[in-house]
Amino acid sequence: MKKLLPLACALALSALSTSAVAGDFFVRGEAGQSDVKLKATGVGSDSDKDTAYSLRGGYWFNQNFAVETNYSQLYKQNLYRDSVNYLDAKLTTMGVGIVVKEHVTPEPVGFFVQLRGGFVRSKLAVDTNLGDASETSTKPYYGIGAGYDFSKTFGLSLNYDHNQDSVDDVKVTANTLSLGAEFRF
């Protein structure tokens, strides 16, 4: 991971050019569904789906390259509850990354495809009647999207993202399909 951070910084700096002076800040909201899979060595595996959302923000250096920061809630469910006992689980991520976007037309409006990737700090939290615990890990994330920019300041897209978390003998994978709206200013 320490070797990838300088590479990401070098890519960000290489995208700066005289046209980058006219860049745009952006905020983006995404909502969709995550398919979360949990695999524990010696115990087995299970999967569940849940509504997911993501908040992203960053800066477009030019029409093709941006840096972003993000927060996502990929899973939050009550797994068990009776009159005394309960078990709740939550998976969230916070990270930084890059976005590469290509429009079908020479202008930054119309149909586009985009790739994004970087690193997220995942937090898996469990709350029970006996107490609560959480574990974190830092892993890469990646995603792909396609959409339509209606103007230079607004666009919609359909996105697929992959996140993973692992602590000791437990591995959690979240694949999310979402609809996103981006505002640039």
Report on this model:
- By secondary structure, the chain is mainly β.
- It has a single domain (4-16, 25-184), classed as Porin, CATH 2.40.160.20.
- Helix content is 6%, strand content 75%.
- It contains one helix and eight strands, in the order αββββββββ.
- It has one helix at residues 4-15; strands at 24-40, 44-62, 65-81, 86-103, 110-128, 131-149, 154-167, 170-184.
- Strands 1-2-3-4-5-6-7-8 form an eight-stranded antiparallel β-barrel.
- The two termini are 32 Å apart.
- The model is unreliable at 15-21 (pLDDT under 50).
Search tags:
185 residues; mainly beta; elongated
Summarize the helices and strands and which ones pair or pack.
Layout (H helix, E strand, L loop, with lengths): L3 H12 L8 E17 L3 E19 L2 E17 L4 E18 L6 E19 L2 E19 L4 E14 L2 E15 L1
Antiparallel strand pairs: 1-2, 1-8, 2-3, 3-4, 4-5, 5-6, 6-7, 7-8
Q: Helical residue percent?
A: under 10%
Number of DSSP strand runs: 8
- Count of spatially separate domains: 1
Uncertain stretches: 15-21
CATH class division: Mainly Beta
How far do the termini sit from each other? 32 Å
CA-based shape: elongated
What proportion strand?
over 45%
The appropriate CATH architecture is Beta Barrel
Summed up, what is this model?
The protein has one helix at 4-15; strands at 24-40, 44-62, 65-81, 86-103, 110-128, 131-149, 154-167, 170-184.
